[in-house]
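@channel anyone free to eyeball this complex?
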Amino acid sequence: MSQTRILPSRAGDSGSAGDAPVPADRLPPRPGRHRGGLRTRLELAVLLGPALVLFVGFVLLPIGVAAYYSLYDWNGFGPLTDFIGLGNYHKVLADPAFQQAVGHNLIIAGLSLVVQLPLGLGLALLLNRRLHGRSFLRLVTFAPYVLSEAITAVTWALMLQPDGFVDQVFRAAGLGDLVHLWLADRGIVLYTMFVVITWKYLGFGIILFLAGLTGIPPELREAAALDGATPWQAIRHVVLPLLGPTTRIWVFLSVIGSLQLFDLVWIMTSGGPANASGTMATYLFDRGFTRYAFGYGSAVTVILFVISFAFALLYQRFALRRDIDGALTRMAG
Amino acid sequence: MRGTGTRRRGALAVVAAATLALVAACGGSAGSNASGKITLTWWHNANNDPGRSTFKAVADAYHKAHPNVSFKIVPMQNEQFQTKIPVALRGNDFPDIYQQWGSGSEATQVQSGKLMDITSATSSWISELGTAPSGWQVNGKQYGVPYDLHIVGFWYRTDLFKQAGIDAPPSTMDEFNADVSKLKAAGITAVAAGSKDRWPDAFYWEYFALRECSQDTVVQAIKDQKMSAQCFVKAGEDLKSFLDTNPFQKGFLGTPAQQGAGSSAGLVANGKAAMELQGDWELATMPALTKDKNFADKLGWFPFPAVAGGQGDPHTVLGGGDGFSCTANATSACPDFLKYVSSASVQQKLVTSNTITLPTNPAANASITDPTMKTVLSYLQATKYNQTYFDQALPTEPGQALDSAVADFFAGQGSASALPKSISS
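replying in thread with the prediction:
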C-alpha cells in the first residue's frame, strides 16, 4: 500500500509516526528472540510440521519402500518372500534395453543443452525488444507449454504419421526428399521425439529467460553502449553474465526433466520401435506395470532416483552454489 | 456399434492410469449391514455406450429382482485395469466384481488371496457355457466367469480383394503370399499392422506356433513356461519369411492398432489396406475410425491360413474372452449375479445391444445378425480347440515379455531361435 517504511513500527515508537526509518543496526534486539527456544520451536513445529509430515509420508517413505521392494522378486500380488538381494539391480544394469534407455536420456539431455539453450536465449532476447505484437508472440511461444503432455503427444503422433501433416508440409515446400518415417524408423525416432520435446518445453525456457532479462537494468546496457560496445558485445559481456543464475536454473530443470522424460514418449511410441526411443521412465513403466514385475520396477526406480539425485547434488554443489548461497546453505542471522 | 468386446483399446489412459495408481484406488468391499442389504462395487471396462448403459440396465434389473443387492458401478477405461487392479488387490479397498480376462494373469492375481473361489457356487450352471469357462480356472478352481468370447482372424476388404483379382480368401500360407503379391501389384497395401501396440504383432507368431506345433506341445509349453520344442523356432522362421514379403503399410512400426483413421483398424475401415489380423472386436472398433457408414458390408473374415508341413491342426484358433471375478468379501450375491449375466436372456440383451459380439451362452447365438459375425461364429463352433492368446495364457511377466520380443522381431531385432526363450529370461 502506501506504507513506505521498510521496518514495521513497534509498540514502543508508535507515537512517533512519520519518523524516518530506523537503521537496522540500531534496533534493540527483538523481544522473544533470546528468551529461550520455546516459542521458536513452537513456531517451527506449527509452520514446518504439516510440510514435514507430507514430505516424509509422500517422498521419503515411498523412496524407502521402493528400495525395500527392489530387493525382492515380486509381482505385486502375494507376500514379499523371494528375497534376491541386489539381483534385480544386476539384471537391470545388464539389460541392453535399459542401457539404451540411459543413453537416450543422456542424448536428450545433451541435445537440450546444445539446441534448446541457445534457441531459448535467442528468442527471449528477441522477444525482449520493443516490437509490434510482442505480447502476442510471447503468448504463441508459451502456448505449447500450457498444453497437456497427452494432448501434445496425440496431436504430434497424428501429424507425424506417414503422409500426415508434417510430410505434406515438407512436400509442399519442395522438401519431399527429407520425408522420413518419423516414428517408425529406429534411427530417427529419438530425434523426432527431441523435436517434439523442444516444441513443448521451449516456451518455458523463454519465459524464464524473459523474467531474468527484466531483472537486468537497462542502464547497464546503455552504459555499455556509451562506452562503445556493439549490441552484440553488450549482450555477450553484460546481459549473458547477468543472466547466469537464470541459465543455471534452466540447465538444472532441463537436465532433470530429460532424465525423467516419460509421457510424450510413452504415448507417441511406447518406447519403440524395439526400444529405439525408450527412456528410463518408459522402461520402468513397461517392466513395472505392463509386466507386473514390481520388484524389478522398483529397482529401476531406485536407479533413476540415484542418477537424478546425484546430478542434483553435484550441480548444486558446483554450479548453483553462488545462486542459492544464503538461501539454503547458510542460516541467516 | 461399439462394444465392450474390444479387449484392449486406448493409450491415453495409460498415463492417466499411471497417475491414478499412485492415488489410492476407489473401491470398497461389499457393505453388508444388519438388515442384510448388500452393495456390490463393480469395476468393468465398458466406459462407453452401448456397454456402459447396458451393464447399468443389467444391474438395475438384478436389483429389482433382489432388492437387498445394490450396485456401485465404476466403469473405467480398459488399460486402467492394468494399474488399478494390482494396487487395489494389494490393499483392502478392492472391488467386489471386476473385469477378468482369465488364464495366466488371473493366476497372478489369485496369488493376492483376495479372489473368491466360486467353484461350488457356479457348478450347477456353468456347464451351460460350454468349455470356455475353463480358461477362468486356476488349479482346477473357478475364479471367474466369461461373458463373451473372442477369436482372432483376418478381417479383409472384399472390394479390394476383388479389385486385385482375388476371388476367394486364401486357405494356405502359399495362397496368402500369392494374394499379398497380387494386392501389392494392384497398388493396394496388402496388410495393416499396428506394431506400436506390440500385442497385434504377437498374434502372428502365436498363430505360426499353433500351426507348426501340436496342440499338446503348445499346452505343455505354456504350462511349463518353457518353449523348448523346435517347432517354436520354426514359427519364428515362418514369421521371418512372411515379414520378408513386406506385406505391411509404410511405417507400420509406429502405427497404433485402434486410435484414429491412421491406425491399422482405421486403414482397413477406410479401404487404405486390404486386411488385418485382429480379434472379432475389430467390427466394433471401426465405426469410430471411419466416416463410411457401410464399411461392414465390405468386410469379410477368414481364419489364419494353414502352414504346409506343420504339426498343428489348421483349424485351431487363437482367442480369449472377457469375464468377471468376485473378490473375497463379495458374499454369495456376486456368483449369483454372474449366473444372471450368463443367463440366456441377459446374454441376448448383451448381443442385441452390441455390448458383446460373441456370447458365451450358446442360447444367445441366434441374436447375432451381422453376416460376417455369423461366419466367425460358425467357424468358432466348428473348431476343436481355442487357444487363449499366449500373453494372456502365460503369467503376466513372461506373456508381456513375449509380446515385446515379437514386436522387436517385427522391427528386425532378435532371432527366430531367441523368440521362444523370451518367456523365460
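from a first look: The two ends of chain A are 28 Å apart (CA to CA).
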